[in-house]
Structure formats: structure tokens, C-alpha cells
Amino acid sequence: MTRTALWSSFVLLVLFSCKSKQESIQPVEEKITASVYASGIVKSNNQYQVFSSANGIIAAVLVKEGDEVKKGDALMRLTNTTARLNAENATIAADYAAVTANTEKLHELVLNVDLAKTKMDNDALLLQRQRNLWDQQIGTRNELDQRELAYKSSTSAWEAAKLRLVDLQKQISFQEKQSKKNVEISTTIAGDYTIKSEADGKVYSLLKEKGEMVNTQTPVALIGDASVFMLELQVDEYDITKIVIGQTVLLNMDSYKGQVFEAVVTKINPSMNERSKSFTIEAAFKQAPAALYPNLTCEANIVINEKAKAITIPRNYLLSGDYVLLENNEKRKVVTGLKDYQKVEIISGLTVNDHILKPIQ
After folding, report:
1. Can you tell me the distance from the alpha carbon of 82 to that of 91, in angstroms, rounded to the nearest whole number?
2. What is the mean pLDDT of the chain?
């Protein structure tokens, strides 16, 4: 046999061998579940980052990671010498401006009002006496005019004394309120140098140490609920319209390899992250693992539909345009339904008795 004939026989043998090894299956009736992929993290309920209300240097860290804290508990204290001195100055000014500290000034004006009132009353009596004499044609017109002028002058002096007393009372009251408000402001500013917890929870992370500089834009700690955890998942914008509250979530975590946990969708954030083109959804565990920590990563499938009995084939047996290849190499059009990552439902076009070939890649 010539070398060319040998080569042709070898090619035919290879082709026949490849054809004979082409995989063949029958459709299967089974349960199929359609789902949407999501990835995300575990978060403690009410988890939040703690920020400082003032810029400064940490003088003391008052808690440790893992500590339980209550709302209002001090976490860190910043160097606050200037703020403390300002608060003390404001307190001194408030004490000086208080009504009790101005009693002597008020008493002096009260005496002036009383003195002016006494003089006015006396001038009123002298004026009435002079008028009686004038009616009896005793005395001169000039004496009567002088008495009237003295009465008017003392009346004006009494009114002026009363106005000065009222004005001083208003001024002292204003200064007292203003100084008290300055004390509140200074005390609040001084209080800003103590970083406090905004809610009950556990200190999961301390992001700054003693001696480090902090500002109002950088978190210093991470705090969250010590017992309740939830899931924060990212869903692609292509799939978000398929998600509704109440859907089941099947997830796995690297920290619990081989285990599948169930959760339920509880919230859909309606705003899309323009950078990642994804939406954030939240889900609650149906039965949470025994131990969880914030920011554990997870992968999830959100169940959007399922059928208990459906005719399915592997997705890699489906040709473009929804065709399948029968054993006799005939292409047949099928109608597909639900799909997951491995299987596709065949609504019509195939039965469990048909045999189909896997397309040659």
C-alpha cells in the first residue's frame, strides 16, 4: 500500500473515531430553578463607621476590638487643651454676666427710680399747694410756673430712671442668656474631642491608634450589632428588574466552604452605582451560621422562578437559535423556558425519549 493510501486511511479512521465518540444524551424530567447571580458581603445589623467631629491627635483609646459598647460610651479622646480652656473662659464669662452677679447695679437703679419717684411726688404736692395759693390770689405767676416746671422735670427724671432700669434688666438678661449659650457651644466643642458610640453594639475594628492624627472625613472605628447580621449584595443592572422583595437567596461563603445558606430579599436600593453598573440589595438570613463577622464575602443566587417538573437538557447541547442536533444529525427547533447555569428547560420540540448529540466544539 502506498504512503498516500496509508495517510488517507488514517484520516478516515480518525474522523470515524471522533464521530463515534460524540456524546449523546436524552432529555431528563427534573426540577429546574432560574436564578440571578449576586456577590456581596456580610454586614452587622446597624453597622456603621465612626467619624470624629473634630480634627486632632488621639490622646487615649478607651476601648478594645471586641468590646461591647452602649450608645454614648466614649471610644477615643483627642487632645483638647484649647477647647477646654475656651469652655472654662465661657463659664467664667457666664458667671460674670449672670443676674446674681449684677445685683448691685440693679439695686442702684432701683434706688434711683425710688428717689426720682419721691421727688416727683414732692414736686406734685408743692405744685398743688402753689395752685391753691394762686386761686386765692396769693403768690406770683412766676412762682406757679416754676413749680410746674419742677414737677415736669422730676416726672421726666422718674420716667428716665425707670427706662434705665428696664434697659439694664434687658441687657443683663441678654448677656446672661448669651453667655450661657456660649458655655453650651464651648462645652459642645470640647465634647467633640471625645469620640462616642452612636448606638449599642460591638467594636469590630479600631482604625486609628493613640498618637495618630484624625479628621472629620476619615473613619476611626467600625461598630455594629453583636448578634444580628444581614447581607449586602450587588446585582447587575441587566438583572435588577427580575428581583422583588421576598425572593429566596441561596448563598455560600469561603468561611463555610461546601455549605449553602438561605436568606430572603428584604430591600432593594433604587439607585444604581454608576461606576459598577450595579444595584445594592439587602437580604436577611433565614438561619444564620453560628459565627459571623462583618465584611465576610459571599456569592449568591437569587431564585426568580422554579418548576418542580420540567424537561431539561444541558445548556451546552443547545445550538444557536434554539436548535438541537438529533442522532441522525437532523437539526430540530425547540422552545426553551427557564435556564440556570447548567441546564435549560425545553417547553416543546423534545421528549424524554429523544436522543441528542453534543455539538462538536
Report:
1. 14
2. 84
Alpha-carbon Rg for the chain in angstroms: 45
Classify 295 in phi/psi space as left (phi over 0), alpha (psi -120 to 50) or beta.
left
Same domain, yes or no: 160 and 88:
yes
| From 182-191, 308-317, 322-331, the region with the lowest mean pLDDT | 182-191
Q: Are 96 and 129 found together in one domain?
A: yes
Per-residue pLDDT tens over the stretch 207-250:
999 989 888 899 999 998 878 889 999 999 999 999 999 999 99
Q: Which residue range(s) make up the domain with 291?
A: 38-46+226-305
Based on the domain organization, do 117 and 203 belong to the same domain? no
What the block records as the C-alpha cell of 234 is: 450587588
Rounded distance between C-alpha atoms, residue 86 and residue 95, angstroms: 14
Q: Alpha helices, DSSP H only, in the chain?
A: 3-20, 81-97, 103-135, 141-191
279 membership: H or E segment, kind and range: strand 278-285
Residues 161 and 187 in one domain: yes
Could you give the number of structural domains in the chain?
A: 3
In a domain, 204, yes or no: yes
How many other CB atoms are there within 10 angstroms of residue 119's CB atom?
A: 17
Judgement on whether residues 277 and 254 belong to the same structural domain of the protein: yes
Distance, CA of 261 to CA of 284 (rounded, Å): 11
Strand, helix or coil for residue 64: coil
